[in-house]
Design a protein that fits this description.
Pfam families: GidB. The relative contact order is 0.15. The termini are far apart. The protein is an alpha/beta fold and 187 residues long. A hairpin with a 6-residue loop joins strand 6 and strand 7. It is globular, with a radius of gyration of 15 Å. Helices cover 35% and strands 25% of the residues. The structure holds S-adenosylmethionine. The site of S-adenosylmethionine has 19 residues, from helix 5.
């Protein structure tokens, strides 16, 4: 991955890691606590996703948690208008702080995605590790105007995605069975 993630990004990624570790020591943002694991799993999978996504102007990260995959994607693709949707207050507060500290213009929607005005649509919607994938995909469908990008394990049942066709399933390098599913809206 080092060959494709620009060197200029590492300073920002380490700054993000630093603030995440500080917040995670006193509030539970992510169950993964080891910095090496955070880099490998959270950063690695998010950056891999960012490298594989089609060109677009807008992206919604559905249930962003501590910012994955949306925030590393934002760092990798500063041209993209990224919205991080996170319904838990403390996680949304962390995301606002990380964005301020990194000097980004990323939007945080600190509520459930279902509460967004119906008119809000995004070219790409990403979903990773959301608790109820079926319900989340159902809520994500009307928000995605072109693509859904779902990080899932190969053992999970393929979600029902009416109006979308699975286009690519890409294994995540270095993981046991994680994969990136990209689905495209049917014409
Ligand atoms: C298990 S965490 C995963 C976070 C992150 N995507 C990751 O991969 O580390 C799922 C997050 O989705 C949030 N969430 C679940 N349903 C949501 C909804 N409908 N709208 C906004 N956030 C939601 C939860 O609050 C939780 O923080």
């Amino acid at each position: 991955m080092g060959a494709t993630v620009p060197d200029s990004l590492y300073e920002q990624l380490f700054a993000y890691l630093d603030v995440l570790l500080k917040w995670n020591a006193r509030t539970n943002l992510t169950a993964i606590r080891e910095p090496e694991e955070i880099i490998r799993r959270h950063f690695g999978e998010s950056l891999f996703t960012g490298l594989k996504l089609p060109k677009a102007k807008t992206l919604l990260d559905f249930g962003s948690g501590a910012g994955f995959p949306g925030l590393p994607i934002q760092l990798l693709r500063p041209d993209l208008m990224v919205t991080l949707a996170e319904s838990q207050n403390k996680k949304a507060s962390f995301l606002r702080e990380a964005i301020r500290m990194l000097g980004l213009k990323t939007e945080v929607w600190g509520n459930r995605v279902e509460a967004m005005p119906e008119s809000r649509r995004f070219e790409i919607v990403t979903l990773r590790a959301v608790d109820n994938m079926e319900a989340a995909v159902a809520a994500a469908l009307p928000r995605g105007s072109r693509h859904l990008a779902i990080l899932r394990t190969s053992r999970q049942v393929m979600p029902d995605m009416p109006g979308f066709a699975p286009e690519m399933v890409i294994p995540i390098p270095g993981s046991e069975d994680q994969q990136l599913l990209i689905a495209t809206r049917l014409p």
